[in-house]
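Recall from the previous lesson that a structure prediction takes nothing but the amino acid sequence as input. Here we apply that procedure to Putative Outer membrane chaperone Skp from Nitrospira moscoviensis. The sequence below is the only information supplied.
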Amino acid sequence: MVNGRTIGMGLGLAVVLGLGAADAAEPVRIGVMDQQLVMERSKAGKRALEDMKSYSLTRQKIINADDQELKELEQAIQDPNAKLSEAAKQEKQEQFRVKLEAYQRRLQDFNREIQQKQREMIAEYSKKIAEAAQAVAQKDGYLAILDKGNEAAIRVVIYHQPALDVTDAVTKEFDRQNK
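The prediction returns the following tokens.
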């Protein structure tokens, strides 16, 4: 399936390559990078990923505690040795229902929070990585640096020679800019 983003990237690449062809005396330098690897290998990226992991784990601990509380309440309701009156049993079942609804709402809220935080982090760091890539391109004379992409996103570069990979240079520049 071809979407607008793919067509736009293809047209952009055609324009970039066309610009290089207009000045045949100067070779066209194009680099590729892996934005995900820059994030995973850079100091600032590792910190951001660790912060995200910590944030998620904190939320998970709360969910696990709520889950344990629900299990204990359910066991109390189902315990044949409890000798609960019918009214007490109904009260415990109502407590369980209310706590289950609260648990489900909290779980949904936490998932939304985490997804929002991830989107914000990706947007922030994509911009910072783009700035680092631009600095590398300007310093080293690249006409363009393309993101390789991955299986989860649109793969822009299907094949490239390893010598075109500037991921390490972009990572170093990213670290320099984001101490």
